[in-house]
Design goal:
Blueprint: H1 2-7, H2 10-32, H3 34-44, H4 49-61, E1 65-67, E2 79-81, E3 91-93, H5 104-117, H6 123-129, H7 137-146, H8 156-161, H9 163-179, H10 205-216, H11 229-234
Parallel strand pairs: 1-3
Antiparallel strand pairs: 2-3
Helix pairs in contact: 2-3, 3-4, 6-9, 7-10
Length: about 240
């Protein structure tokens, strides 16, 4: 009876006050630090593609660009890029760890390599510095499909089609280093590793979006219906 009496007011009032305070803090952060708030929210739900899609859509509605994952700038978390004055809108850099087939450990390995030797210059440079034990073929294909290599090679089909070459070069260089071959003429200047890229058939815009969807879990850089936007508008179609 005493418990029942207490439940009539104690639980509800105590939690109402706590939740009201949390709501106030959350609303303040969202209103004044929108990029940071959305980036943190996306990081919190990094494994929930449905939630990430909702947050990305909210960002776009708010004028905040969601930039594709990038091998040179992305990290484990979603990174906010606050607006720099009125001329530039804020943005969010997509997380590498949020991609399919890639774990936080692999991303941390990429970040450590960047911290040690700077940003990657091209696919050959990436292959030469790649930790082949941290990233496998499937992970590299995901990075290519998601656009993470766009800064190194804008043709995603070419990057995707040469994943085997990247892995082979990385493994060969790792084996040479373990055998001491790279130090044979110690003191000399080491030439940049050369990656023999094989030609690849370019992807159509639809194929590019399909590959991106497979890697990310939703359409990030565009939508299959974008090219029909004007026709749909003429027909009075509503977006959802």
């Amino acid at each position: 009876e005493l418990v029942d009496k207490f439940a009539g007011y104690g639980f509800n009032k105590s939690h109402a006050a706590a939740y009201a305070l949390v709501s106030y803090h959350t609303a303040y952060l969202k209103a004044n630090f929108h990029e940071e708030f959305l980036a943190a929210s996306m990081t919190l739900d990094i494994g929930n593609t449905d939630k990430l899609s909702v947050f990305a859509a909210e960002a776009r509605r708010s004028g905040i660009a969601v930039k594709p994952p990038c091998i040179n700038t992305s990290a484990v978390d979603f990174l906010p890029e606050p607006a720099r004055g009125e001329a530039e809108a804020g943005a969010i850099r997509y997380s590498l760890a949020a991609l399919k087939n890639i774990g936080a450990g692999a991303v941390e390995s990429i970040m450590a390599t960047r911290a040690e030797g700077g940003q990657f210059k091209d696919l050959g440079d990436f292959a030469g510095r790649l930790n082949a034990k941290a990233l496998n073929k499937r992970a590299l294909e995901t990075l290519a499909s998601a656009g993470a290599f766009d800064a190194l090679e804008p043709d995603r089909a070419l990057a995707h089609g040469n994943v085997d070459q990247i892995m082979a070069l990385a493994q060969r260089l790792a084996s040479d280093a373990a055998s001491g071959i790279s130090d044979l003429f110690g003191g000399g200047t080491t030439a940049a590793p050369q990656l023999d890229l094989r030609p690849a058939k370019p992807w159509t815009p639809m194929e590019r979006l399909e590959k991106e969807f497979e890697a990310i879990g939703f359409f990030l850089s565009g939508h299959p219906l974008d090219e029909y936007e004007s026709a749909l508008a003429t027909l009075g179609a509503q977006t959802w």
